[in-house]
């Protein structure tokens, strides 16, 4: 029921092309970072990998999530969905590494997870010898450290290059078209900022979530080891399992749009406020307006209007974005 992702071998961290970094479907890059010192240390042993991270640590506090054994690594809601099954904490990374090291022999173990931490802040100097070249892309480089974990299926707005630096990870991905079949939870109350699928991928309840069977017909999977990488295009749903007692992931996020553009999530939240509860015929009318001005807009959309008079119908610029944001704030603060 699952297809393997397309794979490329023989590409090094300095050889990433635009064709790879703008792909419209996920892509596995075997051995991309095989030469990283972090990868070589982790392959020697878990403790050697942990010691390599310690060499670069200079005392920064990190955000971590702690979960009990009963969750078996799955970060999720509690049973009543009014909270979560983990405890967020702020701690020294040195203490987190000690906790992971002390639990290496336990399975299942209480879960320890440091997610999405900026590398240059947390581990100065790490990227000097453990990095990739992305051309002119202004990417955010983050590190994820933990033991055995399961991260529910979610999407990210930026494109994502994720490099397994220690341990093994299983990626399960779905195209954006599978949204309705993934049974996504609340959009404004989430474990880590992004709406997630409520389906337990290791034990899916097809009576409760019957359409998930259709989603599985479209899923792509890959298991990655140390040094392997995966490119995940913007908006693709991805479920990630860290399979070993010690796992490290390095990822790079970037957008293919200018920094002055706001996140489309703001438009979605505004649509809940302004559109969703309109009468059906009015929603259909607005659907046509959005089709015309947004989703199928092209050079002909405003061609009949003099260029100097097109306002928001003109291509967006940094100054135009600033002016439009001010108008929106004024409208919302009425």
Can you tell me the CATH architecture of the largest domain? Sandwich
Query: How confident overall, as mean pLDDT?
Result: 95
| Beta-strand proportion | 25-35%
Count up the helices.
Answer: 9
Helices and strands: which structural class? alpha+beta
CATH class of the largest domain, please? Mainly Beta
Instruction: Name the strands of the widest sheet in spatial order.
Output: 2-3-13-10-15-8-7-4-6
- Global morphology: globular
Low-confidence parts, pLDDT < 50 over ≥5 residues?
none
Major sheet, described briefly?
Answer: 9 strands, mixed
Percent of residues in helices comes to 25-40%
Report the end-to-end length measured between terminal Cα atoms.
52 Å
Structural write-up:
Pfam families: Cupin_8 (PF13621). Residues 76-269 form the JmjC domain. By secondary structure, this protein is α+β, with helices and mostly antiparallel strands. The protein is globular, with a radius of gyration of 22 Å. The chain has helices at residues 18-21, 37-44, 46-56, 93-102, 119-122, 212-216, 264-274, 280-295, 318-332, and strands at 3-4, 6-9, 27-30, 61-67, 74-75, 86-92, 111-118, 140-146, 149-154, 159-166, 169-174, 220-224, 229-232, 237-242, 247-254. Strands 2-3-13-10-15-8-7-4-6 form a nine-stranded mixed sheet. A six-stranded mixed sheet has the order 1-12-11-14-9-5, with no helix packed on it. Strand 2 (6-9), helix 1 and strand 3 (27-30) form a beta-alpha-beta unit. The model has no long low-confidence stretch (mean pLDDT 95). The chain folds into two domains: 3-254, Jelly Rolls (Sandwich); 264-332, no CATH class. It has nine helices and 15 strands.
């Amino acid at each position: 029921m699952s297809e393997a992702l397309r794979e490329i071998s023989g590409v090094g961290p300095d050889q990433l092309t635009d064709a790879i970094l703008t792909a419209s479907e996920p892509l596995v890059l075997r051995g991309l970072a095989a030469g990283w010192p972090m990868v070589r240390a982790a392959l020697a042993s878990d403790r050697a990998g942990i010691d390599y991270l310690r060499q670069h640590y200079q005392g920064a506090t990190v955000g971590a999530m702690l979960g009990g054994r009963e969750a078996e690594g799955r970060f999720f809601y509690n049973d009543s969905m009014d909270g979560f099954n983990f405890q967020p904490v702020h701690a020294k990374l040195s203490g987190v590494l000690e906790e992971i090291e002390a639990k290496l022999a336990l399975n299942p173990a209480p879960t320890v997870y440091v997610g999405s931490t900026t590398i240059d802040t947390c581990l100065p100097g790490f990227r000097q010898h453990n990095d990739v070249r992305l051309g002119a892309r202004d990417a955010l480089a983050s590190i994820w450290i933990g033991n055995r974990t399961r991260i529910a299926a979610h999407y990210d707005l930026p494109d994502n290059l994720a490099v397994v630096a220690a341990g093994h990870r299983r990626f399960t991905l779905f195209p954006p078209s599978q949204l309705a079949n993934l049974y996504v939870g609340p959009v404004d109350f989430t474990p880590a900022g992004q709406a997630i699928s409520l389906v337990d991928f290791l034990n899916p309840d097809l009576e409760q979530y019957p359409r998930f069977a259709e989603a599985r017909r479209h899923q792509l999977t890959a298991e990655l080891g140390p040094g392997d990488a995966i490119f995940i295009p913007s908006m693709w749903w991805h479920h990630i399992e860290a399979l070993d007692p010690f796992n490290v992931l390095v990822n790079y996020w970037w957008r293919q749009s200018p920094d002055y553009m706001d996140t489309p999530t703001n438009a979605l939240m505004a649509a809940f406020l302004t559109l969703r509860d309109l009468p059906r015929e009015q929603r259909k009318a607005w659907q046509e307006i959005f089709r015309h001005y947004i989703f199928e807009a092209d050079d002909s959309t405003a061609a009949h209007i003099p260029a100097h008079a097109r306002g928001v119908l003109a291509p967006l610029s940094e100054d135009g974005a600033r002016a439009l944001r001010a108008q929106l704030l004024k409208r919302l603060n009425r």
